[in-house]
Design a protein that fits this description.
Blueprint (H helix, E strand, L loop, with lengths): L28 H10 L23 E5 L5 H11 L4 E3 L1 H4 L6 H11 L2 E6 L1 H4 L2 H13 L7 E5 L4 H7 L1 H4 L4 E2 L4 H47 L3 H28 L6 E3 L9 E6 L5 E7 L10 E8 L10 E13 L3 E6 L5 E2 L1 H22 L1
Parallel strand pairs: 1-2, 1-3, 3-4, 4-5
Antiparallel strand pairs: 6-7, 7-8, 8-9, 9-10, 10-11, 11-12
Helix pairs in contact: 4-6, 10-11
Length: about 375
């Protein structure tokens, strides 16, 4: 006896071929024999759905089952076996009178790890199953595949007509039998779960790797700031800066001779061996100097770019400092010189710094022209 005690049950050991004549109670011995006979030979004990875990790890895996009601006979048999391995969100088990269908299904979708989608012509003809499928697609990520298709009485051509994306995914075929479907699904879940574990572990690894690279770069920059090699890189960098600005000024003067830009470089002296000037011819000049560079250290070195008004020819008006920009050298791996500005600490390569210095000069020149 099972289900209603006043109803005599007929044998249904062949439940995989026909539907049961009644709804068996959880403790029904016939029901237990049926489930046992349809389990894969994995050694996994069948327990309550709320206690189901991954067979290899003590981690719960939740399965959402999406289907059309026309396929309910097959889906019932599929869910009975899935419950012995995973937690299963199955509408007849989860929905009760008065529930909000949309809210309940949405909660089921977001709480599940995988979605078993039983595709059939009836599935694609109905609104709710396709809405569930759209929800699963929305939850998928590049490294997190959720949708596990099961084709039931439908061809590849028909699936492709409804959803080309689904047609391109490896699917299991219902006509091959419940055991084959369950086996395929479990393999797919195990592979996907392992991939997710690798991706999860990869995240802290990448963070640690980035930290290690930062520390390595910092150590290398500190080493170069205290040796002749670093000082030599800064001297070469300043010469590269001078050459880049000189080349740009030559190109600008050729196209716009009215600007009359002139770059000059005085003879080196002990206090400022590296310096050059840009004369705009419009009472606005800029000096660019490399200061405080030692023979075997760079940690005090800086480039000072000073915008100033030159003194008048008769000496009545002294030079007027308008603005000063400071850039300090540091090093990136492998031994690449870069410049850090102040106060916001932008980082420039030497060529980018040349362009930035000229932009500052041109902007100030434009401002002065508009004022006058």
């Amino acid at each position: 006896m099972c289900g209603d005690p006043n109803t005599r049950a007929t044998p249904w050991e062949n439940f995989h071929e026909i539907a049961p004549p009644c709804t068996p109670s959880p403790g029904c011995p016939i029901r237990r024999r049926f489930i046992k006979s349809h389990l894969l030979d994995t050694g996994t004990k069948c327990g309550a759905a709320s206690n189901a875990t991954s067979p290899e790890k003590n981690i719960k895996v939740r399965i959402f089952v999406s289907y059309a009601s026309e396929d309910l006979d097959f889906v019932n048999r599929l869910v009975e076996v899935l419950k012995c391995h995973y937690e299963v969100w199955f509408a007849p088990y989860e929905l009760t009178i008065g529930d909000s269908l949309l809210r309940k299904i949405g909660k089921g979708l977001t709480s599940c790890d995988f979605g078993v989608v039983v595709l059939s012509n009836a599935f694609f003809a109905k609104k709710w199953p396709q809405a569930e499928l759209d929800g699963l697609f929305a939850l998928e990520e590049e490294t997190r595949k959720m949708i596990l298709p099961v084709w039931r009485s439908i061809s590849e051509h028909e699936v492709k007509r409804f959803s080309p994306i689904l047609a391109g995914r490896l699917a299991t075929i219902a006509s091959q039998g419940i055991e084959k479907v369950i086996s395929d699904l479990r393999k797919a879940i195990d592979v996907s779960s392992r991939t997710r574990e690798i991706n999860v572990l990869d995240s802290p690894y990448q963070t640690c790797k980035a930290l290690d690279e930062t520390l390595q770069a910092r150590e290398n920059a500190d080493r170069l700031s205290r040796c002749e090699e670093g000082a030599a890189l800064v001297r070469v960098g300043f010469e590269t800066l001078h050459a880049a600005i000189q080349r740009s000024i030559a190109e600008i003067s050729a196209m716009l001779p009215r600007l009359n830009l002139v770059l000059s470089r005085p003879a080196r002296h002990a206090y400022a061996p590296f310096v050059f000037h840009i004369d705009t011819g419009h009472k606005l000049n800029m000096s660019v100097a490399l200061l405080d560079l030692g023979d075997n250290y760079t940690y005090e070195a800086r480039i000072a770019c000073t915008l100033y008004r030159p003194p008048d020819l008769v000496g009545q008006q002294p030079a007027e400092k308008l603005r000063e920009l400071t850039f300090r050298p540091t090093f990136k791996l492998p031994n690449e010189l870069v410049w850090i500005g102040t106060p916001d600490k932008p980082v420039f390569t030497t060529v980018d710094l040349a362009a930035h210095i000229l932009m500052v000069l041109m902007s100030k020149l434009k401002e002065e022209a508009q004022r006058n």
